[in-house]
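TOPIC: backbone geometry
CONTENTS: sequence, structure tokens:
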Amino acid sequence: MSESEFTHEYWMRHALTLARRAWEEGEVPVGAVLVHENKVIGEGWNRPIGRHDPTAHAEIMALRQGGMVLQNYRLLDTTLYVTLEPCVMCAGAMIHSRIGTLVFGARDAKTGAIGSLMNVLGHPGMNHQVGVIEGVLAAECSATLSEFFRARRLEKKALKERVHKAE
């Protein structure tokens, strides 16, 4: 594959594949891919439940892996692709790691820290500015999350019905 074929959509599709992995593990389906010079240096999917770790968000997992690959906590000239608008913790980690660009799919009205709830990356007092591209494959990213939560609600409803029948 030539470099020109590695589009934002290409990498976001990769992040969506990782989001499905989170879903299979019973986690909220969010995936993240960290790219440096058109190569994946970090991947992550949500794992806080399985790892008993509140920091095990997809973005953090990808940033940690990228740091190990580059042997540096500063992840200069990298692009992080995430299926969902990052939270405050993840936005802070992006600033500390000095990534170049964040590309995300769906907005998160409840906890999004890139403009929905607040704008951590856009705060003028930050010591590093991260470029932001939003809305890449937004419909697909949003649909993945909606389907997950719809399925979860149906599972809970079925469980309640089984409990009531047993009583």
